[in-house]
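re: ur question from yesterday

yeah so i grabbed the chain u mentioned. its 284 aa long if i counted rite. heres the sequnce exactly as i have it in my notes:
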Amino acid sequence: MIEVIFLYGLAFVWLIFAVISDLKSREIPNWLNFSLIAFAFGFRFFYSLFVSTDFSLFYQGILGFSIFLVLGNLFYYNKMFAGGDMKLMISLGAVLPIFSSFAQNLKLFLLFILIYLFVGAIYGIFLSLIIGVINFKKFKKGFLVLFNKNKKLIIWGTFFAFVFILLSFYINYLFYFGILIFVFPYFYLFLKSVDDFCMVREVIPSKLTPGDWLSEDIKVKGKTFRANWDGLSEEEINRLKKRGKKVLIRYGIQFAPVFLISFILLWIFLETTFFDLFFRSIGF
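ran it thru and got these structure tokens back, copy pasting raw so excuse formatting
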């Protein structure tokens, strides 16, 4: 049990620092993620060497790290994560596995991902609502622009929603599908309006940091700076500083708090009967 307390206590402290850094500077430093990996593997190795009867704790850490390395990159390249979030998830892969059985650890990974996705969805919607209210004029303007551009989506959504609601007189549960289809286009436009109009700001080059996302491509002396997912590099920022003009930067929602909340919930579930009950209920 001491190994679990140490590893999870270590991750808890590191996650708190990650949240503070993310909220303060919109960045999770590499040293924070890499040091968590180093401490986790260091503890696993020396615990296995001097305390445990085998090296299963160390081997399971390597497997967890490898699995989360794949997952982190998968989320990153599908534009679900920023670079700091990806590295934070990978570092947690070195911490999470606490069972000697790979099958049990696999259940643990699955539960963490499900918790993360659920908490992340609620967190993202809640923050989008707050941002939309705070920047209501921008949101209203953006929503109307996108509404006019996506009238076909609204019309087809309304049509299929109406069809499903009519069919619900024969099959009851189709009513809920109808409501879902009707709401989805508006929900999409809501999130898109917040992202495209409320999360974009003019920033002077001296305030830029590596990884910041350009809202649109810009040209500087024949060189094009792409608005890509990797964000601005140090070299690109230096060139923009020489240019001197403000640039439009797209800011994302800071998701480090989601990792912390998900980790706490996972720990609580492990300390109760929920973990076993959940997987029994789904036949896993």
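noticed a couple things. The two ends are 25 Å apart (CA to CA). also The chain has three domains: 2-114+254-281, 135-199, 203-251.
anyway ttyl
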